[in-house]
Sequence to fold (217 residues):
Amino acid sequence: MHHRKQEGDAPQTRGSVIRWARFYDAVTWIMSFGRAAAVRRETVGLAGVQPGERVLDVGCGTGTLTLLAAAKAGPDGEVCGVDPSPEMIEVARGKAARTGAPPRFEVGVIEDLPFADGHFDLVLSSLMLHHLPDDLKRTGFGEILRVLKPGGRLLAVDLREPENPVLRRLLMTLFLHSHARSNPRDLARMMEEAGFTGVEWGKTRFQLLGYVRGRAA
Fold:
């Protein structure tokens, strides 16, 4: 059984937590050279969100991807976003309120997801896993597996280390925290170790981004 934290508890995480939520969308637009929206659309496309599905966006930030997933899941779906930053969740809730969109946003951490076992059809992760040390990635994959239904899917889009050393140095300069090293192949191995099946990884059409996906056994 998984016991949900009481409302008001402050979840703790060893991953990086972004506090500057008010500027996040503008900064990501600049750092992606104006392609942030296209990245989100590709993520939803790779995930294959279906009408009526229950979807969780882990590390949802300001909720942009969560809102796109909700549009695909439709009125019969259930979509929720969690992030360890209360500031991010406040901005995400504001977006949902302005648009009348149905997603629910909660403060939560990947190592202790506040949901029942086997609740979701699909879990999304977008540009979040590189914020975590490797042992926390492994714990997070175990938690994601727990909240997925049998046969449920995980799709993560994240940074990948480019082969070009100049681009690799640029990547490390842009993402100034100690966990910025990221490789879809390594993430795929961790997912398999956690118990996911049918794991596959590859490149996206964006040079510095890759994806990994798999299913709950």
Remarks:
- The helical segments are 21-31, 36-47, 64-73, 86-99, 134-147, 165-174, 184-194.
